[in-house]
């Protein structure tokens, strides 16, 4: 902790009483698998008290970034998580970091009682009372073996354990994959109501963007191992606007250089970045784009860009 | 290091069937055989007449010989336990760092603040001490049960079990020899344990094949190349392993030594060590050059296993 504090002071060049601490700081983070660069010189800063959505297509490098952050794999570049070096200090880092990587990774042979006991003995910040409290609202019983539980119950159990740990960073990698909608809704409700506060930080990767977009405070898009977008949700609202116009006025909108265009039931929908809203307004309806639409637009823009770069290099 | 007890407990929970079930099954076999023998005597014999006859005859034999037979019988009873112990430890170590990678629960275990070093240590301590001690305790309890069945039978038939067999020989010495040989073997076998843990830490699948095939191929190539060069057999990996095994401090029962049956250590094929089953001869093996070189190999193999474990994730 003292390390993080002193670093913050050095960077700002002046001593502050309560420096804003960054939970994750990555500079030039790379991860290679053979010749492919799964994570390509990523710079990333995640401050305390945020709920960050790390979103990208399959194989974009999300999981590679998270594995590096959690000390589960090697990497190149500078990476500090809560002031520690994850690759050499995983064990001590895990006192302050929790993660749920995918569903159903709890050992199948273990009984719930044993799982709670081993966690209690190994984890200094685990509270058995809290865990039992969260479990009391579920159908999970202490003498159940994990393999007897349904997928949804396993996730409830895992979440109950994780929420009973007083951690500063919680990483959720596809936490609700394969769960039905009831469990998914409940998962995020519990997380927000009973767990999250300004001292904690949550990083979520998921394909089900619609479910998390209303809880996120920050958005990071990752594509081909690079950060394609990194901003807060307020900035998303400021920067991006969606314009819905009738077909006969589509050309006028197109002339204003939208980021992306799609057609929905005869209406043309354009996504603009940093556009003058006063000029757009007369053309049609304005609203804030959904994260999913922004994601699709950013990804296709990124692909077009790399396509241009490639063809440019060839010519 | 205060996390070690919790992790040892977790190893026991996961491998309860092999660690506790196996010796209990052997105990069951011994006790069932004793009871079946009694029933047979009662069924075939009118009022145990031939058994009474046998006891009377035994009472007339030389006490010193009887004491030696009882000592050997105590040790012989450990043989089935020793054999099963070898198999249990072998397969335990093969799975120790492999099973959780296969079922992905490594992602859960690595989310706990237990270092990879203490995790590896918990597996090694389980193989070296926990499993052998469990087997030994069940072995002693089994012998006690057989003593009890025998004594009650002899009492019921109106004879004195104390002068017949209970007071003869020193069962505590036999039991202590067996325990000492288990602990000495744990040290002697460290290079093999290290190899099994290493295979377990990196094998992508089929750890059994990875454990057996490479040394076998290596040994065969060594033999072949030596033969091509010099047309003689030289020391090769196979020979080294065989000598290592033959010299191990495991108690084998029973060989004929100087005209009398006696327990030996390992297989008395080489003149390197004295083969008599004594505490001193076990210590000779432990404080030998062979043991020291074995330790050096073990340290390298365990360090390699730790290196792989630190980088291991699912898949």
Give short descriptive properties of this protein.
heterodimer, A: 315 residues, alpha/beta, Rossmann fold, six-stranded mixed beta sheet, 12 helices, 13 strands, 37% helix, globular, B: 315 residues, mainly alpha, 2 domains, two-stranded antiparallel sheet, 2 strands
What Rg of chain B is obtained from the alpha carbons, in whole angstroms? 23 Å
Proportion of residues in extended strands of chain A: 25-35%
Oligomer: heterodimer
- Rg of chain A is 22 Å
Instruction: Specify the overall morphology of chain A.
Output: globular
Largest sheet of chain B: 2 strands, antiparallel
What number is the mean pLDDT of chain B? 89
Uncertain runs of chain B are: none
The largest beta-sheet of chain B arranges its strands as 1-2
| Helical content class of chain A | 25-40%
- Average pLDDT of chain A works out at 83
CATH class of the largest domain in chain A: Alpha Beta
Strand content of chain B: under 5%
The gross shape of chain B turns out to be globular
Largest sheet entry of chain A: 6 strands, mixed
Structural summary, described in words:
The complex is a heterodimer of chains A (315) and B (315). Chain A is an alpha/beta fold and 315 residues long. Chain A has 2 domains: 2-224, 3-Layer(aba) Sandwich (Rossmann fold), CATH 3.40.50.300; 235-310. Chain A is 37% helix and 27% strand. Chain A is built from 12 helices and 13 strands. In chain A, the strands form 3 sheets. A 6-stranded mixed beta sheet of chain A has the order 5-6-7-3-8-9, sandwiched between helices. Chain A has a 4-stranded antiparallel beta sheet with strand order 11-12-10-13. In chain A, strands 2-1-4 form a 3-stranded antiparallel beta sheet, with helices on one face. The radius of gyration of chain A is 22 Å and the shape is globular. Mean pLDDT of chain A is 83; it is low at 1-19 and 307-315. Chain B has 315 residues and is mainly α. In chain B, a hairpin with a 2-residue loop joins strand 1 (251-257) and strand 2 (260-265). Chain B is globular, with a radius of gyration of 23 Å. The model of chain B has no long low-confidence stretch (mean pLDDT 89). Classes of the chains: A alpha/beta (315), B mainly alpha (315). Chains A and B meet through helix 3, strand 5 and helix 4 of A and helix 1 and helix 7 of B.
């Amino acid at each position: 902790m003292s390390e993080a504090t002193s670093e913050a002071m050095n960077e700002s060049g002046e001593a502050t009483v309560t420096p804003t601490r960054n939970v994750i700081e990555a500079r030039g983070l790379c991860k290679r698998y053979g010749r492919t660069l799964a994570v390509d010189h990523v710079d990333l800063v995640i401050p305390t008290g945020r709920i960050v959505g790390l979103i990208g297509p399959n194989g974009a490098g999300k999981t590679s970034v998270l594995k590096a952050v959690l000390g589960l794999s090697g990497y190149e570049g500078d990476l500090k998580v809560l002031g520690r070096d994850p690759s050499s200090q995983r064990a001590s880092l895990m006192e302050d970091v929790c993660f749920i990587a995918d569903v159903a990774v709890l050992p199948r042979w273990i009984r719930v009682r044993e799982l709670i006991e081993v966690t209690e003995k190994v984890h200094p910040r685990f509270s058995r009372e809290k865990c039992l409290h969260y479990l009391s609202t579920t159908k999970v019983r202490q003498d159940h073996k994990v393999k007897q539980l349904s997928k949804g119950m396993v996730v409830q159990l895992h979440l109950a354990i994780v929420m009973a740990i007083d951690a500063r960073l919680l990483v959720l990698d596809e936490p609700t994959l394969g769960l039905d909608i009831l469990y998914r809704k409940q998962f995020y409700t519990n997380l927000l109501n009973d767990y999250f506060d300004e001292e904690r930080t949550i990083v979520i990767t998921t394909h089900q963007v619609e479910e998390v977009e209303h809880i996120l405070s920050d958005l990071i898009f990752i594509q081909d191992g690079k950060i394609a977008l990194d901003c807060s949700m307020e900035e998303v609202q400021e920067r991006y606007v969606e314009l819905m116009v009738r077909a006969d006025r589509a050309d006028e909108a197109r002339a204003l250089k939208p980021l992306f265009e799609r057609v929905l039931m005869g209406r043309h929908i354009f996504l603009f970045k940093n556009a003058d809203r006063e000029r757009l307004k007369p053309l049609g309806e304005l609203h804030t784009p959904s994260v999913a639409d922004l994601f699709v637009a950013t990804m296709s823009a990124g692909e077009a860009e790399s396509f241009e770069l490639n063809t440019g290099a060839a010519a | 290091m205060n996390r070690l007890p919790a992790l040892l407990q977790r190893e026991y929970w996961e491998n309860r069937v092999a660690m506790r079930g196996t010796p209990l099954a052997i105990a069951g076999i011994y006790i069932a055989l004793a009871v079946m023998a009694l029933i047979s005597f009662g069924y075939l014999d009118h009022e145990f007449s031939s058994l009474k006859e046998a006891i009377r005859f035994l009472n007339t034999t030389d006490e010193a010989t009887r004491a030696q037979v009882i000592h050997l019988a105590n040790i012989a009873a450990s043989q089935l336990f020793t054999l099963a112990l070898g198999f249990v430890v072998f397969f335990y170590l093969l799975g120790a760092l492999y099973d959780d990678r296969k079922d992905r629960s490594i992602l859960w275990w690595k989310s706990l603040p237990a270092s990879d070093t203490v995790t590896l240590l918990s597996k090694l301590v389980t193989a070296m001490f926990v499993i052998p001690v469990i087997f030994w305790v069940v072995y002693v309890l089994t012998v006690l049960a057989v003593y009890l069945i025998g004594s009650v039978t002899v009492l019921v038939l109106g004879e004195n079990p104390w002068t017949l067999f209970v007071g003869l020989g020193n069962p505590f010495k036999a039991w202590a020899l067996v325990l000492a040989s288990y602990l000495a073997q744990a040290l002697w076998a460290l290079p093999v344990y290290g190899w099994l843990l290493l295979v377990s830490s990196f094998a992508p699948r089929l750890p059994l094949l990875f454990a057996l095939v490479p040394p076998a191929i290596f040994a065969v190539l060594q033999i072949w190349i030596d033969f091509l060069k010099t047309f003689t057999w030289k020391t090769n990996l196979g020979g080294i392993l065989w000598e290592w095994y033959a010299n191990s401090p495991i108690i084998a029962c029973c060989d004929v030594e100087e005209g009398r049956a006696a327990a030996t250590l390992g297989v008395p094929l080489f003149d390197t060590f004295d083969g008599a089953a004594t505490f001193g001869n076990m210590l000779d093996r432990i404080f030998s050059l062979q043991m020291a070189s074995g330790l050096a190999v073990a340290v390298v193999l365990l360090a390699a296993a730790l290196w792989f474990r630190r980088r291991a994730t699912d898949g």
